[in-house]
Amino acid sequence: MCEPYVKRNKTDAADAEAICEAVVRPTMRFVPIKSVSQQTVLALHRTRALLVRQRTATINALRGLLGEFGLIAGKGTARSEDLRRRLSQADKDTVPDEARQAITSLFEHVDQLRERAETVEAEILTWHKANAASERLAAVPGIGPLTASVLIYTRN
Question: Which GO terms describe its biological process (predicted)?
């Protein structure tokens, strides 16, 4: 943290002196402490983002697996239902039962990820509606409730 200010060997006293030196510098920037509510909302946003990334990765894996069997659909999460439909319509010669079971379990995983992301998003919207500044910001064209809440709860 304060390595540029350390003049000699690492000791508690040397560390304390370096911290004191760093704190009085006019160019030192300080990070404000987040409130519990800020930490909560930002944790919800990070959780939702992770779930969405996992869902996208699983859909891409499904697209690749089904492409090996000649079943192709367009890109995007909305097109995953096309893949599911094509799998259900494919005969056993095209997609063997063992592969069909494995692929079906991945579709179930996508459904679970979608449901969990929607649940977290609903929690974020609850926080958004409880914050007047977030609601005002969401009234700006192009800014929705998710963007508004992350902006409001990120700033200090």
Answer: DNA transposition
- The answer to whether the CB of 130 falls within 8 A of the CB of 153 is no
* 19-63 residue pLDDT tens: 777 778 878 787 778 889 899 999 999 999 999 999 999 999 999
Residues contacting residue 149 through CB under 8 Å, at least 6 positions apart:
41, 45, 124, 125, 127, 128, 131, 134
Q: Find out whether 83 and 67 touch, Cβ atoms under 8 Å.
A: no
DSSP structure class, residue 8: S
Burial (CB count within 10 angstroms: exposed 0-12, middle 13-18, buried 19+), residue 97: exposed
The residue among 35, 55, 50, 60 whose CA lies nearest residue 120 is 50
